[in-house]
Amino acid sequence: MTAGAAVAAPVTAVLKTAESAGLVDSEQTEIQQVIKKDGKMKVLLINGSPRHNGNTFASLSEASKQLQKYGIETEIFQIGIKPVRFCLNCGGCRKENGGKCVYDDDVCNEIIAKIQSSDALIVGAPVYYGQPNGGLLSVMQRVFYAGGRFVQNKPAAAVAVCRRGGATAAFQSMNMMFQMMNMPVVTSQYWNIVYGASKGEAQLDDEGMQTMRTLASNMAWLLKKIHDSGSEDYPQREPWKMTNFIR
Questions:
Q1: Do the domain assignments include residue 27?
Q2: What's this model's pTM, rounded to 2 decimal places?
Q3: For 117, how many CA atoms within 13 A lie in the half-sphere containing its CB?
Q4: What single-letter DSSP state applies at residue 8?
């Protein structure tokens, strides 16, 4: 079985089950609706690019359209071009600010609020010097530090968009945030990378666009499994035992 077929298998199983129950027309190629117990599920897609309607937006839009085929609500939120602050490790968000960053003059707290009302997260970034762009990293580090309890157990994925090189390093960097926060990392048939330089070129990357659709299908499948089982099935975790290298 090829890698693409292996990751598509869970989604195929969901559709076959729906067909046997009479919920899906076997000749219908569009993906059907997935509903969680207390209403419609939502995925927040964060566009870290300063460009409106650029290649990062095109990549996230492809994933968004695929999620909507499952009946999942989506929102693409762009961090924009206004300055964003970086984390000072002041601890104010945890001491007296209730999980909100003490700096309330950029998009950080708006993103935290949107994550609270979302079931999963996809973060997309253009690649600058082999890294996610600095504005996205600055704001996401604050989001995860201040609002970390709101991202726990929510499926997440990173998307890196580049002209030529450095995408794998940027992709790995973004995934490290999710792995520290007990977030199931959603995979695709390949690393979530799309190529394009000029506006619109990402849509010419056939494999990249297919990777976005497969990512979205896998995320929809995982969300269905999680919400069908109920949140009480999340694992009980031990208290964190933080050990420094030097004591």
A1: no
A2: 0.83
A3: 8
A4: H
